[in-house]
Sequence to fold (146 residues):
Amino acid sequence: MWGGRTGALLRVWRLWPTGILGRRSISCNAASLAGSNCPQCWNCGGQRGPIRGDGFFCPQCRALQPPDPTRDHFSLMDCNRSFRVDTVKLQHRYQQLQRLVHPDFFSKRSQTEKDFSEKHSTLVNDAYKTLLAPLSRGLYLLNRKN
Fold:
């Protein structure tokens, strides 16, 4: 399922979910489950737990998960929350994320994953456009402070 190009990209960028291919699995304990810190996968119902990497995929079934509505542009694009942004790093991160979540890579997947892919891709595009332009980046920073 995740062989070939996509699996290789996930491994190279260290975004491969934990608990796969001999990696140490992370499980949620009772305290974290009670606090709902470990959301369930929409596909397999398994606990996603505190996932390393970006948390786009379920560590058990590797299904694309819904986007996190609380995540800001800076954390999504792996940038410091400041006005100064390394635009080369930003561009590389944008390309990296689009290779993971672009809808073209989910054409043979379920409709749910296609929908999640479109949402993720839209969020990545918005974050990239906002952080790339100095004016929109500054306005975004000001709006996030209030």
Summary: Residues 67 and 120 are 6 Å apart (CA to CA). Confidence is low (pLDDT under 50) at residues 16-35. The helical segments are 4-12, 30-34, 73-76, 87-101, 111-132, 134-145. The two ends are 44 Å apart (CA to CA).
